[in-house]
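Reminder to self: tokens first, then the designed residues, so the page reads top to bottom the way the pipeline ran.
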């Protein structure tokens, strides 16, 4: 029955995580590029520099620079700009001629998630052809799925391992034997999940298939990176944890409760929690030391509460004891208090602003988690009431049993002590045989309270599994603060990502093409405009005329016309003044022949 319960909870968690999560995305967002995306430079740059919202790790293939013909340009080794960990830079050691160059990049976020992308810049003027680069998905779907499964199994196993050990130490069940089966299950699951994460790390970062996990050289590179080192530390910490569990499973109850063993177990739990905290949100961003401490406390409190629920279910099935339940109730209350404090801090740190609570995926997931926690607290309150009722009914039952035993105890032969002895001449009358005193059956209300408590704890455990799954999804979602920083950042030498707009157009008998329109800097005030027309095959297309106009309907401003000039391959205007922030309507009109023209509109966001 216990195994079935655990499997149900595990299935619920994995089902929510794998079925409801959006595609995994990295937490380091690209803040700027130098050269800027789509810019035209008079002279070839000496370096390509990327700046991110948080620190990133570099790979051997972090940069690929391709010339207009698709040939790889010779570059130096990937490094940093000014020694800053949130930058990636590569030197362009080869000669760059006139034309458009494509930069494909791939780095690893500080919280261990890969991120990749591509952008272009031109030297002299845009070329008639550009290199077509398919960066592919940031993650291989099968590798990413296996990585998710291993990752979430490690969360569940850690909660089961730490929570059960804490339950034995803090709640002191009268018969811990059934719980000793949970401890090895958690330990072996955590060991297997950690090994899987280690061997899947290289293909996960590279976006390769699972078969790349067999590459010994790639595994050697993995153990030299920060995520690999943290996984090795986790494996090393499982060794003393296994020795401690071996003593527990042997039943040496006296030795396992020594202060030294307790301190060693606590230190091991803290060390395990640190391997997660150092690889996730807490390791990047603001207030890293405080965030790391908060994350460790949050993880431990979660494990003590949720893992303890599974241990409590096992205890209620095998050897129910009101005192044990009462002690867990107090432990759970302390865990919830820690979760409340650390959760508020982590939410503030991750969101960055109130609008991010509803406008970002991270914020919406956080709202879902808060709703789950509210339901969980309600279920916990019901469990506390059942616990109180069960303890009260048990005390009444025990008192009644003692009174009944006293009433049923027969008086000694010959009457009460000190009374007159029976006369020998008068035979004693036969006395009816007295039944042996027996233990009465427990009152019905005690059994009913016990059943109610067990049902309530099952509900609590199910909701807890869902909350844990949402928490796991949160760790795979960019924080609102990072997303907001990326959206507001202005590239060092280029434009905002949102200021590059691609408009599909029908260019007559040739088929459908596109117009790529870039605003620099894409904010209120003066902007430079650059427009390039591409044909159906992706090559530059010459058109007789191209016009742009901008209208702000909410403020009745416009139309404002951009005075575009044909620069021989692309169109540009040195100055376009957009006076107000807001969502503007951009109308693109392309004359595709002497008699035909097409128009398309797009909405673009202009920041202050």
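Designed residues (608 positions):
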């Amino acid at each position: 029955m216990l195994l079935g319960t655990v499997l149900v909870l595990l299935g619920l968690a994995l089902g929510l995580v794998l079925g409801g999560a959006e595609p995994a995305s990295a937490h380091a967002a690209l803040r700027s590029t130098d050269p800027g995306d789509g810019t035209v430079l008079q002279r070839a740059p000496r370096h390509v520099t990327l700046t991110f919202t948080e620190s990133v790790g570099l790979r051997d293939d972090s940069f690929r620079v391709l010339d207009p013909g698709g040939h790889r340009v010779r570059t130096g080794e990937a490094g940093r700009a000014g020694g800053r960990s949130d930058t990636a830079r590569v030197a362009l050691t080869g000669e760059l001629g006139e034309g458009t160059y494509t930069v494909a990049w791939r780095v690893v976020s500080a919280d261990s998630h890969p991120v990749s992308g591509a952008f272009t810049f031109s030297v002299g003027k845009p070329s008639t052809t550009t290199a077509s680069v398919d960066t592919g998905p940031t993650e291989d779907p099968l590798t990413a799925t296996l990585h998710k499964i291993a990752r979430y199994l490690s969360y569940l196993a850690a909660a089961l391992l730490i929570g059960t050990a804490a339950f034995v130490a803090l709640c002191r069940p009268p018969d811990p034997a059934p719980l000793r089966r949970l401890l090895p299950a958690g330990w072996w699951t955590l060991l297997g999940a950690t090994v899987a994460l280690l061997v899947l790390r290289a293909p996960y970062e590279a976006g390769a298939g699972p078969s790349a996990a067999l590459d010994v050289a790639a595994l050697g590179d993995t153990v030299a990176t920060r995520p690999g080192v943290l996984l090795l530390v986790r494996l090393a910490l499982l060794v003393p944890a296994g020795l401690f569990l071996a003593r527990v499973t042997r039943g040496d109850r006296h030795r396992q409760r020594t202060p030294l063993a307790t301190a060693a177990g606590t230190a091991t739990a803290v060390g395990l929690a640190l391997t997660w905290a150092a690889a996730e949100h807490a390791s990047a961003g603001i207030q890293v030391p405080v965030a790391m401490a908060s994350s460790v406390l949050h993880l431990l409190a979660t494990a003590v509460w949720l893992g303890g629920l599974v241990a409590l279910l096992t205890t209620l099935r095998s050897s129910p004891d009101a005192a044990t339940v009462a002690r867990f109730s107090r432990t759970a209350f302390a865990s919830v208090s820690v979760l409340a404090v650390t959760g508020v801090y982590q939410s503030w740190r991750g969101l960055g602003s109130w609008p991010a609570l509803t406008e970002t995926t991270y914020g919406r997931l956080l709202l879902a988690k808060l709703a789950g926690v509210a339901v969980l607290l309600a279920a916990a309150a019901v469990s506390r009431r059942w616990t109180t009722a069960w303890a009260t009914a048990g005390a009444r039952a025990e008192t009644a049993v003692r009174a009944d035993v006293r009433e049923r105890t027969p008086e000694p032969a010959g009457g009460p002590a000190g009374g007159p002895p029976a006369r020998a001449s008068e035979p004693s009358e036969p006395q009816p045989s007295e039944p042996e005193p027996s233990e009465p059956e427990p009152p019905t209300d005690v059994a009913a309270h016990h059943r109610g408590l067990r049902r309530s704890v099952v509900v609590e455990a199910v909701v807890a599994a869902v909350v844990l799954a949402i928490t796991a999804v949160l760790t795979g979602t960019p924080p609102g603060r990072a997303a907001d920083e990326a959206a507001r950042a202005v590239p060092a030498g280029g434009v905002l990502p949102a200021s590059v707009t691609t408009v599909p157009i029908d260019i007559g008998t040739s088929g459908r093409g596109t117009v790529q329109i870039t605003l620099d800097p894409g904010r209120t005030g003066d902007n430079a405009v650059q427009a390039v027309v591409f044909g159906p095959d992706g090559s530059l297309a010459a058109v007789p005329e191209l016009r742009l106009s901008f209208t702000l309907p909410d403020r009745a401003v416009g139309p404002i016309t951009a005075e575009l000039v044909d620069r021989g391959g692309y169109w540009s205007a040195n100055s376009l003044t957009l006076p107000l922030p807001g969502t503007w309507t951009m109308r693109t009109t392309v004359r595709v022949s002497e008699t035909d023209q097409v128009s398309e509109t797009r909405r673009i966001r202009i920041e202050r």
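The chain has a mean pLDDT of 75.
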